[in-house]
Design a protein that fits this description.
Layout: H1 2-15, H2 18-26, H3 41-47, H4 51-59, H5 74-81, H6 84-100, H7 113-119, E1 123-124, E2 128-130, E3 136-139, H8 143-153, E4 159-163, H9 169-175, E5 181-186, H10 189-197, E6 206-210, E7 223-228, H11 235-243, H12 245-248, E8 249-257, H13 266-282, E9 285-293, E10 315-323
Parallel strand pairs: 4-5, 4-7, 5-6, 7-8
Antiparallel strand pairs: 1-2, 2-3, 9-10
Protein name: Protein arginine N-methyltransferase 2
Subcellular location: Cytoplasm; Nucleus
Organism: Penstemon smallii
Length: 328
């Protein structure tokens, strides 16, 4: 009998019958229910574009971030079907939940992931840097993206800061713009040693700081362009770095970061693009997200031997952040 109530809830959500939906919710129907296809009432409401049903289910506590067996959320279904009102409600619910709880990308325990990575052995090949668990730290397919990031942060010339060297893709691109100074912060000992072996310590305009950026803030100055791309850190770490931007970025400067936030799910990615833009806005920065198509860079062969596909979307949104005029 209990299951019938939940199945009725799914039917009402599919049909956009808000009266019946509300009645079932009030009678105790479980809004977190997954049907035999692994879909929730909220997914059905989103797929069929009933904004009123979406709102009623969200208000009743339906999880906005539940995933179907094909890794899609209600927001993905609303996006795919072009239901803007339902999508807006889900996007707002996601942003509000993440602002309060940080459920997707927050540290789930006290374990220092960054510390683990720094002690990990990494392996280098022509097209990727891998950690000990065969997870990619950085891959060559990112080269056009890194060149676009470098172009953005070097557009005003001057003094440039990059947090996280990886394969050196962005730093190689930065060098093409011959900045006055080019500071690189790299925390991994093997990556640092490889930098020295490949001549980065001998470049006249390059200053290498070995260690975690958190431990070396006193060595950092004020820059015209900043890029942030660390491996083994969480969104919380980037959020902490953003708190230092007012001291690190000159008025009129440009900040960008590798935007891999929730790169395996289109809707979660949109939520995080909006969230980071909102948080930067609160710090006095305006953020433009420039869409770059990446589908053609990412054939299946790219991921051979890689345990985790950290990017599965067709479009990369390159962030360009600048201080608002009134914060200069």
């Amino acid at each position: 009998m209990e299951e019938n109530k939940e199945e009725s809830l799914c039917d009402a959500a599919r049909n956009g019958d808000v009266g019946k939906l509300t009645s079932l919710i009030e009678s105790g129907a479980d809004v977190t229910y997954f049907d035999s296809n692994g879909q929730t009432p909220l997914m059905h409401a989103a797929k069929h574009g009933s904004a009123a049903s979406v709102k009623a289910l969200l208000d009743a506590g339906a999880p906005w971030n539940a995933l179907s067996p094909s890794n899609l959320s209600a927001g993905d279904f609303a996006m795919e079907c072009g239901h803007q009102s339902a999508f807006d409600l889900l996007l707002n619910a996601g942003i509000q939940a993440e602002l309060i709880l940080g459920t997707i990308a927050r540290k789930d325990d006290a374990k220092d992931n960054n510390g683990d990575y720094l002690e990990d052995r990494v392996t280098f090949s022509e097209d990727k840097v891998m950690d000990a668990e065969s997870k990619a730290v950085m891959m060559a397919w990112e080269k056009p993206l890194m060149e676009a990031h470098a172009k953005a942060i070097c557009s005003g010339g001057g003094h440039i800061l990059n947090i996280g060297f990886g394969m050196g893709l962005v730093d190689t691109a930065i060098q093409q713009y011959t900045p006055v100074s080019h500071t690189i912060v790299e925390a991994h000992p093997e990556v640092y040693n490889r930098m020295l072996q490949t001549g980065w310590g001998e470049k006249e305009n390059v200053k290498i700081i070995f260690g975690r950026w958190q431990d070396n803030l006193s060595q950092l100055e004020s820059y015209d362009g900043i890029f942030f791309d660390t491996y083994g850190e969480y969104y919380e770490d980037m959020r902490e770095f953003h708190q230092h931007l007012p001291h690190l970025l000159k008025p009129g400067g440009i900040y960008s970061f590798f935007n891999g936030l929730c790169g395996g799910n289109p809707f979660f990615h949109v939520v995080y693009c909006q969230l980071v833009s909102l948080e930067l806005e609160n710090l006095g920065y305006s953020t433009q997200m420039i869409p770059l198509p990446v589908k053609d860079c990412l054939g299946e062969e790219i991921w051979e031997g890689v345990k985790h596909k950290y990017w599965q979307l067709d479009t990369y949104y390159l962030p360009v952040c600048q201080p608002n005029d009134d914060s200069e």
